[in-house]
Fold these 2 entries.
Entry 1:
Amino acid sequence: MIAFWVLAAILIASAVWTIAAKKAVYSVVALLLNFATLAVLYVTLSAEFLAVIQIIVYSGAILVLFVFVIALLGSGVAPFATGPNRLPKIWLPAGIFTLAAFGFLIYALSNVKMAVPAATGAVGTADVFGSVADFGKALFTVELLPFEVTALVLMVAVIGVITLGGEQMSDAEAPRSQVRADRAVREAILREGKG
Amino acid sequence: MNVPIADYVTLASVMFFIGVIGVIVRRNPLIMLMSVELMFNAANLLLIAYARLWLQNVGHIFAFIVITVAAAEAAIGLAIVVTTFRPEKYVDVDDIRALHG
């Protein structure tokens, strides 16, 4: 119980830090803290495999990708609009909406008395809920179709990124002389057609 | 040691709303993408909490799919940011409307 509240406080503080940071690099650091804390919370919910995946995929892959892009774009500040944030225009309706949503949520949950039991503490055995063996057995037998869909999603992402990056490459790396020569040939053909 | 499920729902919704506010308020597209990641993680936390409550593996499978989708989204979103925002030219997030209907 105490562990949950400590983790919740860290989660919310790091989430606020993520969206309030001046530079994108600080946001990445805050988000890293957020994801690591979430991994700890997953362990207390006896989702061991997902805790490891959280660290490897989120902290290891996605956040490193963010750091790469920040480094590529020059500290992440220069090319972006540096005007005021958009909160002043909409803070009143957004605040009212948020408070109403929270009020409704607390009202709806006030009658729920179910409690999530703590993790059992037995790690590594196959029959324990949430262990790697348990998760893997479900993933490769009953839930095989979602697993294949996952592969499809990743392939679509790869193709999309190649398409996006390929366009930029062909624009940036086509030699100027080649472009000029192409245009000369095209104009010559047009002139012949008119004549 | 047992935590009420309502506390998990409250924590996840607070995290989700922080992400929503980040997307709405910030102008830096990288921080907007990170706020989207925050929202993904709030949903994941709820999925895993309910999976533990009902002792169902399906929540874990679904959280796994969400993590995959988040990875794909981050890759494509960052590719769009890199192709759209060049260091030498000034671009406002509001001016990018290629996907408007």
Entry 2:
Amino acid sequence: MEFFKPGTHIDFMGKSTYALLFSAAMILIGIISLILHGGPNYGIDFAGGTVIQVRFSQSVSPGEIRESLKDVGLTGMVQRFGAEGVGEYLIRLQTTTSDLEGLSATIEGALAKRFEGKTVEIRRTEMVGPKVGKDLRTKGLQAIIVALIGILIYISWRFKFRFAVGAVVALIHDVTITVGVLSLTNTELSLTVLAALLTIVGYSLNDTIVVYDRIRENMGRMRREALEKTVNISINETLSRTILTSGTTLLVIVILFLMGGGVIHDFAFTLLIGIVVGTYSSIFVASPLVVMWEKWFPSKGEKRRT
Amino acid sequence: MAGKKSTFRWRLVLILFVLIGALIYCFPTLVRETPSWWPKFFPQDKIHLGLDLQGGMHLILEVETAKAVESAAERIKNDLKNDLKKEQIIFTSLDRVQGDKIEVVLLNPEVKEKFDTYRKEQYPLLQEIDSKQEGDRVKVLLEIDPRYREDREQSAVDQALETIRNRVDQFGVSEPEIARQGANRILIQLPGIKDPQRAKDLLGKTALLEFKLVDEGYDLSRALAGDIPFGDVILFQKVEDPKTGAVRKIPYLIQDKTLMTGDALKDARVSFDQNNMPYISISLNPAGARDFDRLTADNVGRKLAIILDGNVYSAPVIKQRISGGAAVIEGRFTLDEAKDLAIILRAGSLPAPVQILEERTVGPSLGQDSINKGIKSIIIGGILVVLFMIVYYHLAGMVADVALIMNLLIIMGVLAAIPGATLTLPGIAGLVLTVGMAVDANVLIFERIREELRLGKPPRAALETGYSKAFLTIMDANVTTFIAAVVLLQFGTGPIKGFAVTLSIGIAASMFTAIVVTRFIFDYVLSKFRVKRLSI
């Protein structure tokens, strides 16, 4: 079985201008969304606060939960957790108290009183102090930057610098668009989502490297060809593999997204976006950038027609 | 071909070794209980589950090291006060200011000179940061040597860690994790804990035990009105009504001079009185017993207050001199309270108060849910990938599937084998992700082989070139993911760390299975049968 017949020839490089415009638009939309939302939608891991996960024996309305919280003098956000009809909700409060059990007991009492006849179970309580949240934010950003630098160094060593530039720009592109989509969909940035972002940093590079590897190999064979053509041939030759691997990975992530349960939901969603964007960028961003870099800063010593 | 044959055998041994090893380590996890025939020297441990999967409590405490420095400053101040009096270096006031600094007002510049010489000789830890002449008096501001200060802060955290470890050990939690985090934080993980509040009370209490005398020579109501004699403080005893649960506070006027502290304790046990009410009997170490002997002898007929963290627990009358170093603490304890107090007293006090910075409690039912859903995702995702590979690559796809299954076994085996590794919910996600990614290497190889076959190469040559050309690409692609995983490992806490661990193991294992194992299977088939056409 084959998805792409040998000899497939799609003119990716010819479409790279549109692709770059598309990418720029995506990034812009993401950034605008981030500005309008006043920065990323930090979850309690990074912003501090308290989250309590409750489950009712039957589905109830989030509004009513909010009301019952008001009865005990608490204001919080209530959102459905997991699939509809399960009766599972997240209650998020700004306060950070050291008496978390007291708080959750208060809430349990208030809920039990209002929803008589339905059982309430407190399944999870989490409190993160503002100090820890701030620390994690700095450390998270550091982690992403350190990972990017590490990868830049590795690719510069294995390939040429112009490849490394293309790869890292593509990575920043992937992460920015993913964060933008998270902002648009109002997904909370939590520790697990950060882990997903870092995984994207590693994973989206997979595709890029496979294409780059082929470009490098073909550059040796096709000395007389224009770099642009070599790049285009290389993308086409690896297309089958690129789509296949992204496909199998996406397959399992979709399963995880659908069946993994509430806690893993955002994680899977982030990966889903990241892998789609990452696959796109290795073809439409990382590879054209190598050609552009070569046009702007021709490498010395190598004679080649452009 | 002799060389070829020997690498063939060698590879077979390696693969069998890894496979059997992985199976042995996986076994305890896969069965509910290890059967009786399972040899004792074989691994017995199941894969360690993270708190998010098995339920439990995660705490991050911050040791308020500044308080430890302050109490050190307080001690030094008291010593200095006594010594200056002894040396007849006259001062009009001597106080602790700004937390950990000491301010002395000396009689005149002459005394200041005397004071300076004395300080340099006897208190090298104190450094002058400011001195001002005010009329005749000289006001001196002293601070503690920064190196000593740092030392105090460090040892406060070390001590707190030790004390908390002791308390957790005695509380009886199976497989707790207690570790230092950063300069002054302590991470505590208590799997499967049922009563989080009780655990928190137990861990968070400073448990500073003090013995002080009650001041009975003064009218308590006047003191409560605000007229407190010099050197006295008012402390309360909390009494809870067993029926209504209402808390009553009984005030005591206490002479604020610590006669003994919990340091003098050797042991603390729960005992019961004739009404079957629990109380705590303590025994003192030799030095403590001596002090207690003298203390009781000097103060027969007076009330001795036993104070824990500023709360009076009991204030019995000293009926007679007590020798031998045994005493009791009474209070209206419930059995659990008495047990916990005894643990705290045995484990010792924290050198400084601690503050809860982060707390996460996961109920066991949620954890079980997560496990079930995670396993379901792995199985369904796995089956889909396996089927896809067969449809797309036929027999070669099956070979890749064998590698995939072996890959999962190795990851589980390694997770079970490494003592520190835990499987967390994101870790399960990592496992699912690995299933998707593990076939990547094989896809790369197979696509290469197909290309070579198209060029008209015979099966064996196509195989050879396919593997060798794909190898570097696979390597490069995996190293970058590995870099990201290692960064996560450094950065991450709990669940994230679990994800990074699974991902890293998955990458290493998939390189082995996708390259070594599949290659071996192909080589074996090609050497046994006359293959004219690869099913790929």
